[in-house]
Structure formats: C-alpha cells, structure tokens
Amino acid sequence: MRGSSRQGLSVRSPCHPPPGVSSRGPRGRFGRRWQTDAVSRKSKKTPTSLVSVTDLEHAYGHRVVFDHLSFHVRAGRCLVLRGPNGSGKTTLLRCLVGERPTSGTVTFDGRRVDESDPRFRADVATVLGDLDFFPDLTVLEHLDLLARAHGQAPEQADEVLEAVGISDVRDQFPGTLSSGQRQRLALATAFVRPYRLLVLDEPEQRLDTDGQAWLAQRLAADKRAGAAIVMATHDPDLAAAVGDDVLELGA
Ligand SMILES: Nc1ncnc2c1ncn2[C@@H]1O[C@H](COP(=O)(O)OP(=O)(O)OP(=O)(O)O)[C@@H](O)[C@H]1O
C-alpha cells in the first residue's frame, strides 16, 4: 500500500499498509483536476444519483482489493477510475454490474443491483474486457441482433457500424477482425442500444488515434444526453476529455 493522505475516499490496495496507516483507514484520492461531489467517504444518496456505492469491500480469499469504498454517480456525469495494474479497477466495475462484493452495497436507480433483473439489463450497457462474439455471426448480424433485442429500429445497426468506423467489415466474422476492429465492435455492442449507465473498462485500448478521438466525442455526447458513465482508463487524455470525477485506486 502506498500513499494514505486522502480526501475521504476509501480505497485499499492488495499490498500492506505503511507504518502508521491503519489497515482499515481511508485510501485512494481525488484527482486534482476534477473537483467532485460524486465521490465521498459517506455516500450521499440524492434523487439524481443513479449509482450508489456504500462501504464496498471486495477480497479474493484473504487478499483485500478495496474496502470502505463509497461514492455515487449522477446522470450526465462520468466517473473515471484510475490506478496501476492490479489496483482493482476491473473488480470494482464488475461489482457495479452484478458481481457480488465481499460486503457493502451497490444500487442502481435506488434498487440493489441484480444482473438478472430485466430492468437493470435494459438500462445498463457494459464493455468489460475482450467480449466473446458468436463465431458464425457477422459483424452486422451481431449488432442487428442486439439492436432488435433492445427494441431498436433495424437501421440502427448500420448507423452504429458507420459511426464506429467498421462498416467495411460488416460482413466479416469476428475471428477475422484485427484487434482494433474487435475493440470497435465491442464498443458498438454498447452503442447500438440505449442505456442510462455505461460501464467501460479501458475502452481506448487498441484504438488508433482517430478511434480515440471519436470515442471521446461519443462519450461526451452520451453525457449531454443524460447517461452516466463509469470508466476505467489508463489514457489521461480520455480521462481529461470525458471525466467529471476521478477515483484513484492505489497499489
Ligand atoms: N478471479 C480472481 N481471483 C483472484 N484474484 C483476482 C481475481 N481477479 C482479480 N484478482 C486480483 O485482484 C487484483 C485487482 O485486479 P483487477 O483486475 O481488478 O485490477 P485492475 O486495476 O483492473 O488492473 P489492470 O489495470 O491491469 O486492468 C489483482 O491483484 C488481481 O490479481
């Protein structure tokens, strides 16, 4: 565990605390760039809080990844998770979308998160890790299936393909795509459907410069449209372009 002088946020790394720092003391820190009221030691549940996290802890066996973590995310805001490899960003994102934490609560729109709840699934889009695509569905067929499942017009898949910049591979199978094209397809699976909360794990990875710029613009537009975003990223430019609040996990 490194660093302990923190403004109220509790994040714990898997490592040992330094001398004088309680193993249950507050950890993590606010980024300086984004003054925030969305991340606080004590979660303030307001009518516009879409996501509320209260006293969250997650451990793998005896290894505590974080504890005493409380924050909330409002509609139209983006919370950026930062921190070195292994600091717990993915684990936290997974807890937001249904992985059972060791203790603490996560609510979405006032209800405890339950990934089997159709309302939750309708409202929350995720791009977490490398997605498993059906090997014998084309790029277009994947998006078409998702668009229809979420009640979208048939042309929605084509529009998103165009927007994400992979319309030229629309008839290819996922196994034939480059890694950057796969990432664009992964993002398209979220963008082809409506959502109130978007949860992203390093969405910038494997994107070229144009793709990164487009992604930042798209996420900014999502916020203006009222979506909440929680995003782990190692890209300071993307964080600066989209983030309103930042939660740094230590290591
Ligand atoms: N299923 C698991 N079983 C045991 N330990 C795990 C498991 N998943 C993650 N961990 C451990 O939990 C810690 C946090 O992992 P996590 O993937 O959340 O980190 P991260 O901040 O997302 O890292 P990165 O920046 O590399 O993506 C790591 O030490 C990791 O080894």
From TrEMBL:
Keywords, comma-separated and alphabetical: ATP-binding, Cytochrome c-type biogenesis, Nucleotide-binding, Transport
Transferase among keywords: no
InterPro entries: AAA+_ATPase, ABC_transporter-like_ATP-bd, ABC_transporter-like_CS, ABC_transpr_CbiO/EcfA_su, ABC_transptr_haem_export_CcmA, P-loop_NTPase
UniProt domain ABC transporter: residue ranges: 51-251
GO molecular function, one term: ATP binding
GO biological process, one term: cytochrome complex assembly
Record CDD domains: ABC_cobalt_CbiO_domain1
Compositionally biased intervals (Polar residues): 1-10
PROSITE patterns (UniProt xref): ABC_TRANSPORTER_1 (PS00211), ABC_TRANSPORTER_2 (PS50893)
Entry GO CC: membrane
UniProt-annotated stretches for the region Disordered: 1-47
Family: Belongs to the ABC transporter superfamily.
Name of the protein described by the UniProt record: Heme ABC exporter ATP-binding protein CcmA
